[in-house]
Amino acid sequence: MKKPPQDLSQLLHQRGQLPNIAEKAELLMHLDYYVKQVLTGPVSEQLKVANFRQGVLVIETTTAAWAARINFQKTKVLQQLQAETLPMLSAIEVKVNPSLLMYATKAKENHNQITQAAATHIEALAEHAEGSLAIKLKRLAALASRSRQS
User: Which domain of life is it from (predicted)?
Assistant: First the structure.
């Protein structure tokens, strides 16, 4: 007889190293969110909370210029974190990690546009289709004229 699969949340909160790792990852995610709320503006998009060890919060950023901007605001962030979230925080360390640029979110392109040629082909296909499929194809072809207007 086979055992049923265990729920992942049960595995994470059993014994061993995994519960500690999961707890630290959750803490780092919350700290990252909080630091980005304190450091508003474009600087918040260029940083990531990397670690918290022995009372030191490690923040990584993409360039030395961003690191300098974060260092200027470090005391403000330190005081707010100590007062509201982490009273055991003693220092903030800012490190430059250029590889963060690889993970930067890129603006998504709008792919909801249909060329006029594609619309013509879809309309021709709709002429030979029946029922609800024909209606849906005609609505899809109409997207080409809407994308031209905007």
Answer: Bacteria
How many Cβ atoms from other residues are within 10 Å of residue 100's Cβ? 17
Nearest to 124 by CA among 81, 60, 116: 116
85: three-class secondary structure by DSSP: coil
Q: What is the DSSP letter of 46?
A: G
Overall fold of domain 8-103: GMP Synthetase; Chain A, domain 3 (3.30.300)
**Nearest Cα residue to 55 out of 36, 31, 76:** 31
Mind listing the pLDDT tens digit for each residue in 84-108? Answer: 888 999 999 999 998 887 765 555 5
- pLDDT tens profile 51-83: 999 999 999 999 999 999 999 999 999 999 999
pTM of the model: 0.59
φ/ψ (deg, to 5) at 128: -95, -5
What are 149's two structure tokens? 């207007």
Query: Count of CB atoms within 10 A of residue 28's CB?
Result: 17
Q: Considering only the C-alpha atoms of the chain, give the largest distance between any 2 of them, rounded to a whole number of Å.
A: 72
C-beta of residue 39 within 8 angstroms of C-beta of residue 47: yes
Question: Structural domain boundaries of the chain?
Answer: 8-103, 116-149
